[in-house]
Design a protein that fits this description.
Blueprint lengths: L1 E4 L5 H18 L11 H15 L3 E7 L2 E9 L16 E9 L8 H15 L4 E4 L6 H9 L16
Parallel strand pairs: 4-5
Antiparallel strand pairs: 1-2, 2-3, 3-4
Helix pairs in contact: 1-2
Length: about 160
């Protein structure tokens, strides 16, 4: 297994990985709000790769037998002109996608991908890394905890009406 920067020849594998993640999210979504739109497979990868390209980001993929089996995408998003009013605004990177195919999980690939992205963010002068985790994704929460991450914010939801 090797970690490389994204190459277009792995586009179909990356699409498959994104769909695999979304299908997993659907399976654990207790609110039934997520969906796998028919256009998701073709459009999500374009949106993610554009974010990476336009925000000083990187996409690394784990490749085994010439197939992408995992990926991580991260960006360095700018602050807006008012963020400084209530925040010190340290430079930070943000993980926007992390997926390891279910067939090869628990082999350390996710940690290797995280370390690669952390190295990139450090090389760009980032002081912190942010990652959003779906609240029902207990496996991901445990993974991030093991890798030194902690919660800083919570977003709550309540269904009204009916």
């Amino acid at each position: 297994m090797k970690i490389i920067e994204y190459e277009d020849k792995y586009l179909e594998d990356v699409k498959d990985l994104l769909v695999e993640l979304e299908e997993y999210i659907l399976s654990i979504d207790k609110d039934n709000l997520d969906q796998l739109h028919p256009e998701y497979r073709e459009k999500m990868v374009i949106l993610d790769l554009e974010k990476v390209k336009n925000n000083s980001g990187k996409c690394y993929i784990a490749v085994e037998n010439d197939k992408a089996i995992g990926l991580i995408m991260g960006c360095i998003f700018p602050y807006d002109e008012y963020d400084y009013l209530d925040y010190k605004c340290p430079k930070r990177g943000e993980i926007i996608e992390l997926i390891v195919s279910k067939n090869v999980r628990s082999k350390g690939i996710g940690s290797i991908l995280m370390n690669k992205m952390e190295e990139y963010f450090k090389s760009k002068g980032c002081e912190y890394i942010l990652v959003d985790v779906f609240a029902y994704n207990e496996n991901a929460i445990k993974f991030y905890d093991r890798n030194g991450y902690h919660s800083r914010m919570y977003r709550n939801i309540k269904k009204i009406g009916e």
